[in-house]
Design goal:
Structural class: alpha+beta
Number of strands: 5
Helix content: 25-40%
Radius of gyration: 28 Å
CATH architecture of the domain at 4-102: 2-Layer Sandwich
CATH class of the domain at 4-102: Alpha Beta
Oligomer: single chain
Shape: elongated
Number of helices: 3
Distance between the termini: 85 Å
CATH topology of the domain at 4-102: Double Stranded RNA Binding Domain
């Protein structure tokens, strides 16, 4: 591998930053399952990703157990009988994680309930209270 890889829109890394390894798959494959290494495992160090600190933290949260203590993201795929298809699946999963991590969540703006909404809530509570009071024995409302 030489040159650069585009992992997601705006995320380019050197090709040697991504490490691919292959092993025997436990998935479908018939007689080939014991002979051909079709399972793909993609490893990339988070430090080599050109993302800002906030995006890296979101990526760690999204990836969960896929991030090692050494700061490597590991993605494995063995859903297909083809090594190439499993490699593409790994890159697709990485792409989805990166795109989700790059989106900065909107901050919630604190709001106060309006006077009308407070009044409506209290009047609904009053109506409900009256309904429940009338259910009791001798529950005539006399104020």
């Amino acid at each position: 591998m030489s040159g650069t890889l585009q992992l997601a829109p705006g995320v380019n890394v050197a090709a040697d930053a991504v490490e691919l390894s292959y092993s025997r798959s436990s998935g479908p494959g018939g007689q080939n399952v014991n002979k051909v290494s079709t399972r793909c495992e993609l490893r990339i160090a988070l430090a080599r990703l050109p993302l800002h600190a906030g995006a890296i933290e979101r990526l760690k949260t999204l990836a969960g157990h896929k991030v090692t203590e050494a700061g490597e993201l590991i993605i494995a795929a063995d859903t297909s009988r083809s090594q190439g298809a499993n490699r593409e699946e790994c890159f697709e999963r990485l792409r989805e994680l990166l795109v989700r991590a790059m989106v900065e969540p909107k901050r919630r703006k604190k709001t106060k309930p309006t006077k009308g909404s407070k009044e409506r809530r209290l009047s609904e509570k009053k109506v409900r209270s009256d309904v429940k009071r009338r259910r009791n024995k001798g529950g005539s409302r006399e104020d």
